Amino acid sequence: MTLQTQPYKGSRDFYPEDKRLQKYIFKTMRSAVEIFGYEEYDAPILESLDLYKAKTGQEIVNEQTYAFVDRGGREVAIRPEMTPSVSRMVAARRQELSYPLRWYSLPNLWRYERPQRGRLREHWQLNVDIFGVAGLQAEHEIILVADQVMRAFGAKRHMYTIKLNSRRLMDMIFSEYLQVSQVQSQSLAKLIDRMHKMEHSEFVADLDALCTPSQRESGMSDRLMALLKTTTLEELPPEIQQHDACVTLTKLLKLLKSSEITNAVFDITVMRGFDYYTDVVFEVFDTHPDNNRSMFGGGRYDGLVGLFGVDPVPTVGFGMGDVTLANFLDVHGLMPNLKVESDMYVVLVGDVYDKAQKLLAELRQMGLKLAVDCSGKKPGDQIKTAVKKGISYVLIVGDRELAEDHYTIKNLVSGEEEHHSLQRIVSIVKDYRKK
Amino acid sequence: MTLQTQPYKGSRDFYPEDKRLQKYIFKTMRSAVEIFGYEEYDAPILESLDLYKAKTGQEIVNEQTYAFVDRGGREVAIRPEMTPSVSRMVAARRQELSYPLRWYSLPNLWRYERPQRGRLREHWQLNVDIFGVAGLQAEHEIILVADQVMRAFGAKRHMYTIKLNSRRLMDMIFSEYLQVSQVQSQSLAKLIDRMHKMEHSEFVADLDALCTPSQRESGMSDRLMALLKTTTLEELPPEIQQHDACVTLTKLLKLLKSSEITNAVFDITVMRGFDYYTDVVFEVFDTHPDNNRSMFGGGRYDGLVGLFGVDPVPTVGFGMGDVTLANFLDVHGLMPNLKVESDMYVVLVGDVYDKAQKLLAELRQMGLKLAVDCSGKKPGDQIKTAVKKGISYVLIVGDRELAEDHYTIKNLVSGEEEHHSLQRIVSIVKDYRKK
Fold this sequence. Notes:
The structure is a homodimer of 435-residue chains. With 435 residues, chain A is of the alpha+beta class. Chain A has two domains: 16-331, BirA Bifunctional Protein, domain 2; 344-434, 3-Layer(aba) Sandwich (Rossmann fold). Chain A is 40% helix and 19% strand. The first copy, chain A, has 17 helices and 17 strands. Chain A has helices at residues 16-34, 50-55, 58-64, 83-92, 137-152, 167-177, 182-194, 200-210, 213-217, 220-228, 238-241, 244-258, 322-331, 357-365, 379-389, 399-404, 422-434; strands at 39-40, 46-48, 66-69, 75-78, 101-105, 108-110, 122-131, 160-166, 264-266, 280-286, 294-300, 315-321, 344-348, 370-372, 393-397, 407-411, 417-420. In chain A, the strands form three sheets. In chain A, strands 1, 5, 6, 7, 8, 9, 10, 11 and 12 form a nine-stranded mixed sheet that branches. Chain A has a five-stranded mixed sheet with strand order 14-13-15-16-17, sandwiched between helices. In chain A, α7 runs antiparallel to α8. Chain A is elongated. The mean pLDDT of chain A is 94. The interface between A and B is large, with 98 and 98 residues.
């Protein structure tokens, strides 16, 4: 039987050039969030399935998790998201941890879905959470962090919009302003969440189908349609504006403006998929015409830690996926030009592998990253290999060079060749590395 | 229902202090292998089960893999080892890649086994492989790399031994010198692999049970016992020493000695568990009396890439687990003292969160890693939080400080308090970070 060489459907192999991009992404994310005092954590990729049954959306648990029974009869799942794991970890040390607690992680997550642009079965996600802050400072800081991450990748304000809404506000609108039932609220939330992906006529029809005859008579859907057209909090009816959830949003938007976040706006259609959000939610949208979509988001979820039988901990967080981010960098021309790790490719002329060991050990000792060609091919072919590998320098080592203890290096980018002592070579290559 | 807070059996949560140690381990590994020109890659954690059926040991596939059927009816497994994945990736680009190819990765791996010291269900493993070198240079370099990794963690030569053997040599000894059958060879290899974990009498009895009556008569087991007592290649019978596999081992040991690897020895009992090794194998042993065990190992496996229907690629590699490494660092007193990521904890005196934003933004702009206390607690309690978090500096910010644009910082380690401008504070804290 011949084995297949492609990776499992919807997942990716990371060849060194792909891994370099991922490492650049992770490094940039880490630097950005650590500036705000966040510390990295991690959790196992397998968790008890119960963890997701509790609060992750039904669709994800029933249709999209990789769940199975282990050899010991336990129902387990490969994590589809990180929030339940981090809530579990905080609950386990509820009393010992000191708040505000700022944590981040870079987990890989799995969902069984049809692979498409921006969506794969395996992706990595920056998860950032602040625990223990009930006030608006938590939302403010988390959005500053999300913004800092975007800017660390070179994004300019016009390239993305931060859209804010509130679950608490929407709950109030559904139950008090529109007076719909709990079940209708859930269906409405789902419908609004899909609104921008549907034809307007289709949306209107679906909305109408949701209404009871008396709701149709009282013009409920017209009132909802009017709300959905608002683009600022000030356009909302006064009785909604007075509500505490709306006051919170107003304050938050003001605080963000004063922090020079000029691309944050209210958007009543932002819903977020997970069931666990309790108040402010936000989504970051790409404004590029070729990639006009929600990239990532987050919000407040004060109820999760409490599910583990301890006192609840107010929490605000977001998750940012690597695939959508890479799409963003791509369409905006923000992809970096990354150098290979190795500084120098060592070309061995003749049978000098054994004799060259002392030299190679010295170069490594001095911190150079060396790849040695031990193929026995002609020097010209070895240099071709160096070019193919994208390494900037070759070092030529033969009997004569070893006897003289002077070596030729060639810069494969400029074509320049130089003949020097070891010390000089090391400093030339290290200087080049810094460029 | 109250959810459980402990992680899945045999796996670990990484709280920030645990993650810091893991990051130190990964960083040290990366630096050590990149010195030798290795480039990082990665593969998905889920693979087709077929990949492991082909060559991974039977015990691992049948009893220890996390295997299941996905929602699309595919038999998949969570990777129990990385070698099949990397072989698949090389095979997929067999023609395009340029050799020697030097790759490394830091995957997490899963095995269903009873958790015990040095063995967990989830562990991380540094995997290092060189592809495309048929000669001894590959074994030599890979062992140099393994040694470099050990030394990068501060290990001294007396703390570990590198034990070498050859699968090819053992095959010859079994089939030609001892003249046992293929089936007996496999049982013998397994028995020798377990030798150091058994009582001597038990080993002798098991060996005797393996022999046929005619083998017993001809003294086969005595000849094997004599071989197992040898500790150098020179003690082996001349007809074995003359064999090409033995000549190779002799040359390799000599080359290692000349590279100042004084702790490499021949050990006829080194077998390695996987079925895919074809020639030289090695294992690194901890010499500490409290942890005297095999830590990690590797060897040559020339046949794996060819299983994917392409021309075979000679390969040598090793895998080094994080759990056994941490045990090693622990017993030898090599555990590092790691600082928390954040440079400074910001104590807010009074209701100054909004007003302090400009200052905080400036400090972040200058590259300081700040955690801001937005709890509204008394300053003394905020400082206690900073101490608990292990952060070295606190910055006190109240109305007076903001008006004067001069701030008090306190070093929580020395107790020293200073009052300075922003610029001066940033340089003090950055200097401290470098220590």
